[in-house]
Amino acid sequence: MTVPDVAFGIIAAAMVLATIGVVTVRNVVHAALYLVIVLAGVAAQYILLTAEFVAWVQVLIYIGAIIVLFLFGIMLTRAPMSNDPDLDNPPGVRLPALVVAIFLLGVLASLLGDAFGKTELEGITPTTTATVGDAIFQNYVIPFEVVSMLLLAALIGAVVIAKRD
Amino acid sequence: MMLNQFLFLGAFLFCAGVYGVVARRNGVLVLMSVELMLNAVSLNFVAFSAHLNDVAGQVFALFVIAIAAAEVGVGLAIVLLIYRNRVSINLDELDTLKG
Q1: 3-state DSSP helix/strand/coil percent for chain B, to nearest 5?
Q2: ipTM of the assembly?
């Protein structure tokens, strides 16, 4: 067991518990806070994979912006702050959902174990922000521009949808 | 480190997201579950980027993050509009199109 393995184990355990919290807890604000733990854990895994630029973008955009949007959404829809059984579908829907999710996890896990069971991640060369920037502005400049158009469309769309008329 | 440990974690996040989308009733919580699924995909992108020593995976993880931001913006606007019209964001009550 090396240091990155131990770090992975601790972070992954926290992420798994927090993920279960996000999809089961009976309080909207607690779900949002559990989501913060999951997103921070994903950022930590990016650091372990030496993708530090993606990790900081994850922290800035997800934890900084998207969680705040969620909290605004919770506030504006006047979600009850105490335990609310109304947040979940009835057990007749939850049980099939659980079966589907566990089945999917089993299929994915067996496929991944079959395909990459012995693949070691060794000798990762750390990527610098300069490398990522070069790749974006040389090879992927057209998708980058398309994303900017998409963000503009989403901005206008959100304003038009939420506008009080 | 094995490649698989990251892929298994991503698979778990994705399956939890699938469960959340189906089992949750509140619109905001469904959007949170969608975020879980998007994060699982980004984690896979970055893990394969490290495995293949190719920066493209990280670039696409950044694109996924940008698209997730746009998706949440529009999604929450829709949820607010539903709340304004129906004073509830329980998704199973939105059955106007049902025959």
Answers
A1: 80, 5, 15
A2: 0.92
Topology given in CATH for the domain delimited by A1-90? Four Helix Bundle (Hemerythrin (Met), subunit A) (1.20.120)
Chain A, chain B: beta-carbon pairs less than 8 Å apart: 243
Q: How confident is residue A150, by pLDDT bands cut at 50, 70 and 90?
A: very high
The answer to whether B33 faces chain A, any CB pair under 8 Å, is: yes
CATH no., domain B3-87: 1.10.287.3510
b/e map of B25-47 (b: 16 or more CB within 10 Å)? bbbbbbbbbbbbbbbbbbbbbbb
Considering only CB atoms, B46 lies closest to which of A46, A70, A102, namely A46
Rounded to whole angstroms, the maximal C-alpha distance in chain B is 54
Query: Which sign, positive or negative, has the C-alpha torsion B76, A44, B58, B43?
Result: negative
Domain residue ranges in chain B: 3-87
What are the residue ranges spanned by the domains of chain A? 1-90, 128-165
- Type and span of the H or E element at A9: helix A3-24
Q: Which residue has the higher pLDDT, A125 or A152?
A: A152
Structure-token match 């996000």, residue found: A22
Coil, strand or helix at A36: helix
DSSP A141-165: HHHHHHHHHHHHHHHHHHHHHH---
List of residues 6+ apart from B4 with CB closer than 8 A:
A112, A113, A116, A117, A119
Q: Are A66 and B68 in contact (CB under 8 A)?
A: yes
